[in-house]
Amino acid sequence: YRTNDTAGRRRGVVLREARKLLEANEIEAARRKLRSHSPEQHADIAWALARTYDPRHIRSVGADASAGDIEEAEKWYRRWYTIGVESGLVSRNFRIDRLIEAMRRQ
Question: Which helix (H) or strand (E) is 44 found in, with range?
């Protein structure tokens, strides 16, 4: 996202706040914060939301991985990919299926 615009700065704040909530094992609060900022329209928010469902990521920040939901993570990773490709932020060559397969193997 662009940090030189107000919306981009606001998303940056939301992303930082959600990350802190996730690290504090406040997973549902992090998800609510991200969902309130149009994850279906913003690649950075969709990516962060996907990670709140990804058991590997949840575990990596020291939170309770049992709160993970692979299906929901996949949904948001795929949405991130679509938004990213459409906006030119993500290469069409990015292997989204490899990311999802790795998450499923955990």
Answer: helix 43-53
